[in-house]
Amino acid sequence: MTTTRSTTQSTTQHATIHDTPPAARLVLGAMMFGTAVDETTAFDLLDRFVDAGGCWIDTADCYSFWASESGYGGQSEEVLGRWLAARPGVRDRVLLSTKFGAEPRDAADWPASRTGLSATAVREQLTRSLRRLGTDHVDLAWAHMEDRSVPVEETADACAALVSDGVVARIGTSNHPAWRVERARRHAVGQGEEPFSVVQHAYSYLQPRPGTLTGNHRFGWLDDELVDLAAVEHLDVWAYTPLLSGAYDNPAKPIPEVFDHPGTTRRLAVLDDVAAELDASRGQVVLAWLAARGIHPMLGGSKPTQLTTAVAALTLPLTETQVTRLSEVDVTPPTS
Questions:
Q1: Greatest CA separation for the chain
Q2: Low-confidence ranges of the chain (pLDDT < 50)
Q3: Cβ atoms 261, 209 nearer than 8 A
Q4: What helix, strand, coil percent values describe the chain, rounded to 5?
Q5: How far from 304 is each of 28, 48, 52, 162, 232, CA to CA, in Å?
């Protein structure tokens, strides 16, 4: 494989995304494959996803260390590698995305012992990922969690070198603050190197209270600054946990406490109105709303029905007026 071929493949995918099947706008998250999701179920989900027209599959070298007996990751990539080996020709139909930087060096001391994002670590981790996946390249590689022990310029250079070497088509950042993303991009552009062109963060229709954490990443939520940066610099945006782990539609899963504020009540009211108009579930409207805004929703489900429902969501006839109604909900407190 050459750098030219991989970059062309990625660019073509990006340029024609709205002409492809609805599933092409989804990303299938493989986080729990090989741990909470057994291999048979994982193979079934992957087959169904590809048959529906899906192409992007996302994993990471650290998936899922917290659910594994060893305390280390790699299980997800290994399952994907076995699936690819068992399906001759399917590698040419899918786009693989993997991340590095968050795998523990010491399972008893995470996150302090993360592998991190030094030039040496980036190269070593990607090499291991390729071996587990059984491929000579991935279509997108991510700096998984920011590493402030390393200059972001070093990480940018190391990731750009992966593109130059033809083992990666595009590079992105996940769970990084906007200023570090922009600093890395400016450095790469100044050096004539491939810059980060994609960001991946948690994001959904409901918004958390300012100053609260939605997970174990300090910069895990896609904030307004990153949204603005992505719009101005034409970065692709991927959103993980878009359905709040099922809380929109499953009464047994309450909406997380960080979303408990008056703005949520107002947004849910509009979401319910649009869902009724479309005869769809809340979660389906959320996925359609994200896709309408050019954001790739990432589906981490473990059941075929969840995949079917998500694919159907991207066929909803969501109008521009409905998108505007959903996006411009007045969440300011009423004045007395």
A1: 66
A2: 1-18, 336
A3: yes
A4: 45, 15, 40
A5: 12, 8, 12, 35, 37
